[in-house]
Amino acid sequence: MANNDFGSSTFSSDTVADAAARAQDQAVRYGRRAADAVDAGRESAASTLESAAAGIRSRADSLPGGRQVGRFAHQTADKLGATAQYLREHEVRDITSKIESFIKAHPAQALFGAAVVGFLAGRSMRS
Asked: Are 9 and 1 in contact (CB under 8 A)?
């Protein structure tokens, strides 16, 4: 091993390569754990969406505003139910890939959707 300007030995390229490989392996393990945690949360999220859809359906016909509001509420409940089913049927990687593609293709709609979701989440936490 060669000495550097400070008189200490420098790392060999094998040591650096080994350290990089270990770091990469560790990152892969952490990534898998994170994906597993998200996958575990998919069922909970799907169940929550189904519960919300059922609640909307049960109140849709009694909402003020007439048949048009009721029809809109039923359509919303159907979309929530379809989203719950989608969550159950697809892996996290598939979902994130499709979301990224949509955001890149439709940035304004994605921003509007994020604002709506944030607003609804804030409202639900207050109640």
From this structure: yes
